[in-house]
Amino acid sequence: MRSFLFYLVSILVGAAFFLFARWVGNDYLFFAGYTVLQFIVLATAWNILGGYCGYVNFGSAAFFAAGAYSSVALHKLAAGIDKIFPESLAGLMNMILPLPIPILIIIGGIVSGVIGLGTGYLTLRLRGAFFAIATLALAVVLQTLIVNWDFVGGSRGAYIIRPNDIPILGSYIQYLFLVMLVLSVIAIATARIIERSRLGYGFATIRDDELAAEACGVPTLRLKLIATTISGALMGMAGAPFPYYIGYLEPSSAFGLAYAVNSIAMPMIGGTTSWVGPLVGALLLGIIQQVATVTISSAVNLLIVGLLLVGFVIVAPKGIVGLVQDFMRARASDQGRPTWRSRLAIFANMRPGAR
Amino acid sequence: MASPLLEVDNLGKRFGGFVALDGINLSVTQGERVGLIGPNGSGKSTLVNCMCGTLQNESGTVRFDGHVVDGLAAHQRTHRGMARSFQLPRPFTTLTVSENIRIPLLYTANTRRGAHLSLAEITARCEELTGLVGLAAKADKLPRDLTQVEMRKLELARAMAAEPKLLIADEAMAGLSQSEVADIVALLIKLNERGITIILIEHIMRAVMSFSQRLVVLVSGKKIADGPPNDVVNNPEVIGAYLGQ
Amino acid sequence: MQFELLINAIIAGLLLGGLYAAVTVGVSISFGILDIVNIAHPAFIILGSYIAYIVNQTLGVDPILTAIIVLPAFYALGAAVYQVYYASFEKRGQDALRGLAFFFGLLFVTEVMLILVFGVDYRYVQAPYIDYTLHFGFVDLPLRMLIPCVLSLLMLLLLQLYLSRTFTGRAIMAVSQDQLALQLMAADPIKIKRIAFGISIATASLAGAFLIVIQPLEPSVGREYIGRVFAICVLGGLQSLPGTVIAAMLLGIVESITATFYGPSWAPAVAFGMLLLTLAFRPAGLLGR
User: Fold this and answer.
1) Which of A100, A167, B191, C249 has its C-alpha lying 20 to 30 A from A68's C-alpha?
2) Is A309 part of the contact surface with chain C (CB cutoff 8 Å)?
3) Whether A294 contacts A301, CB under 8 Å
4) Could you give the 3-state DSSP secondary structure of residue A280?
5) What is the H or E stretch that residue B33 is in?
6) Domains contained in chain B, CATH given
């Protein structure tokens, strides 16, 4: 029953914003909204490995860019069918390519998922600190590879021609917005399902005490690999539509530092113990950054994020969600009866490890 | 003569230049109650870690239930039926007492070939175990709200939740009162009667003597005695190295 | 011709290795000995570079001299950062996640502030030896690389002596192994760690000066060095200073040869690639146990 409510509410909220933006008539809201939704996916994805399992990933940009560049590669493939494929295949290829965005998303997810699995397999037997450093390494290695790969444009970048209009909806950006909206719901739903399952318990034990988890029979390496793969895949899915959103993709923007920082800052500021945290963090920080970029400058808005990250990590390590929970628990225990606050806490179902 | 459940064959473990275990031979038959004693730092916990897979031994072999387990990860050995409690309790700090006990049920008891426990059964066994160690009242509390003694009981309950063939209790009774010690010993004996082989590592001699059918003594990484408890405690070498007067 | 190119590449690599060793030694202390994953270390180095740059621009003072003068300030900064780290994380027994996020935040904030103050243009320093190159036959020894390399090795030698001969130095080595024994010897582990971390950041001051003498800089260069620093640290076997030097030289040579024969756009990947390989196959390092 609670799950049904969750999906219903998220669809309603998403639909409400979408209709509101259409009514306002300004495409800017869709552009800004897309960015915020993208961050929701990235933050939620990061949290599956970082918050649930306790393994920090500094290379979110790598997974995001891998998804983006698989789309670019497929786009280039579509543009160069006659040059690349022999005549016999060209006809077939012309029917399949260019691939629609949802398929690109799936492919981007698979590519990044495999990268996550590979990185994890190489480094997850080691301590968490080494894994974190390895993810940094991954981002740079991947960026260097892309910069040197001329097929996707290398350092010169790649142009993606996107259609102007979509039947029924109107402008293309509205279509992208909807796609990202659906992706956000999928990401959050995934996190939520994991949380409530045996897998979620397993992740929590890895975070709390990996040695004891092993002794209890938890196959820690396997679970960590699952987490890395899912996390990477979701990030790749977020990256796949990006070239179509931005029109011109070059490595420094795909691998931008903003992705690494935001995907860490948003869950840590929002709260890492449940799916609510990354959502709250992404909405809050995403909106602040949109406002700051327009009013001040984009460098300053990154500074704000960095300072907030350091501040929260020192002062409020449980994040916004943690602060709210403490507040609710203090009030709820006053009377011993469930209050609307404690009921809200149960609805958000912040578990396991949500204390 | 049944083949031993656990066979430790010439096990060796070093940390850098320090020899923690030197050629340990140990054999435990199904259903036995073995006590393992020795001064602090003699290698008892290291031996447990090597047997259970938390550490990898450099030399020698460990055989459990007829199969060599060297090289297997700790969780695989737990699946095969070895369970242990940690000397310094290592609870899952963000999970409640009840959830802590649930983990081995979810990941070990539930995944053995042929076993498929329903959610209700898991919950029932979880509650049973929580009550068995006297933690029913604190089932929904976090480990940080427990006393030292209660944390040790949680450690033991968690090891029991893995439904092992062999249970290794590493100083599970430190700090308990006389009656609590007696309760735990009674509990372990009852488990043994159900068929679980138990190795008890302890300093509390009264508990060790009343519990063990066989006593093994470890000093400075070497086994110096292995036999019936009364013989062992009267062994002059053991008295000199560990027991005192 | 190829042979001469190779020799020069190797020599350039060795000289570069000297710099890399200076850049890494701070992390050898903070990560190898204190077990603190200070990924913000390159940020402190770049900070040192920019301070040397400003003083050089306004007062014309030699950058390396500036770094030496500013050393105590960096030491104090390191001690202060450690205090915050200890009070917020180590004492509370927080999981490693938050400590990492903290340093990552520091790294990031430092870089962004430098961008806001100095912009993204490359900055460089002026000093008499920077444009001067010694020639021995076909071998070229640019002074701007030779001097930092020599000074760096000197700094490492002094550190090694300090860590092995003085009481505080040995206490620092001991704190990584046995805190209780240290306390019994009437040394406060927290104070020892604070001193060690302070020293670690102080080395960043010098490393920063070396860096800007060797190459022009802009704020994001720091991030390139994260991979190098940890690659060298892990390859060299974490706690070993001699290992750090050897690994640094090795990395320098491999990078230099790659840049000479395959082009400079591949250079950043070398360090990180080596790091990934080392972590995957030989995490104890070349000289590690």
Assistant:
1) A167
2) yes
3) no
4) helix
5) strand B33-37
6) 6-90+159-243 (3.40.50.300)
Across the interface, whether the CB atoms of C265 and A148 are under 8 A apart is answered: yes
Q: What share of chain C is helix, strand, coil (3-state, %, to 5)?
A: 75, 5, 20
* Residue A26: C-alpha distances to residues A19, A21, A22, A83, A355 (Å): 12, 7, 7, 41, 42
Structure tokens at A273: 């113990």
CB-nearest partner of B142 from A202, A217, A355: A355
How confident is the model at residue C177, as a pLDDT?
Answer: 72
- In this prediction the ipTM stands at 0.90
DSSP H helical ranges for B14-109: 44-52, 74-80, 97-104
Distance from CA of B91 to the nearest CA of A (A): 7
The CA–CA distances, whole Å, from B8 to A136, B1, C253 equal 43, 18, 49
Q: Give me the residues paired with residue B13 across strands.
A: B21
Nearest to C100 among A132, A134, A141 (CB): A132
Share of chain A above pLDDT 90, in %: 40
What value does the CA radius of gyration of chain C take, rounded to a whole number of Å? 19
Half-sphere exposure of A107 (CA within 13 A, CB side): 16
Instruction: Establish if A309 belongs to a structural domain.
Output: no
Evaluate whether residue A123 is within a structural domain: yes
- Asked if C46 and C114 count as a contact pair (C-beta separation under 8 A), the reply is yes
CA dist A54 and C98 (Å) reads 9
pLDDT band of residue A353 (cuts 50, 70, 90) is very low
Q: What are the backbone dihedrals phi and psi of residue B235, each rounded to the nearest 5 degrees, phi first?
A: -70, 120
Q: Is A166 on the interface with C (CB under 8 A)?
A: no
HSE-CB of A140 using CA atoms within 13 angstroms: 26
Interchain CB contact of A201 with B (< 8 Å): yes
Domain count, chain A: 1
Residues of chain C with pLDDT under 50: 288-289
Tell me whether strands B6-15 and B18-28 are parallel, antiparallel or unpaired: antiparallel
- CA–CA min distance B29, chain A (Å): 22
**Helix, strand, coil percent values for chain B (each to nearest 5):** 40, 25, 35
CB contact set of B190 (below 8 Å; sequence gap of 6+):
none
Residue A342 lies in a domain: no
Whether the Cβ atoms of residue B229 and residue B199 lie closer than 8 Å to each other: no
Q: What's the Cα-to-Cα distance from B140 to each of B97, B102, B156, rounded to whole Å?
A: 6, 12, 17
Nearest-angstrom CA–CA distance, C139 and C126: 24
**With contact defined as beta carbons under 8 Å apart, do A36 and A287 qualify?**
yes
- CA gap C160, C167 in Å, rounded: 13
Identify the CA nearest to B51 among candidates B161, B213, B167.
Answer: B167
A283 lies in a domain?
yes
Residue-wise pLDDT tens digits, A39-89: 999 999 999 999 999 898 988 999 999 999 999 988 888 777 767 777 777
Cis peptide, bond prior to residue C142, ω within 30 of zero:
no
Whether the CA torsion A326, A329, A331, A333 is positive or negative: it is negative
Give the residue numbers spanning the domain of A266.
Answer: 28-303
Nearest CA in chain A to C86: A314
* DSSP labels, A188-227: HHHHHHHHHSHHHHHHHHHHH-HHHHHHTT--HHHHHHHH
Give me the CATH number covering residue A39: 1.10.3470
Residue B168 to residue A321: CA distance in whole angstroms: 40
**CB A136 to CB C269 under 8 A?**
no
Residue A334 pLDDT > 60: no
Single pTM value for the model: 0.88
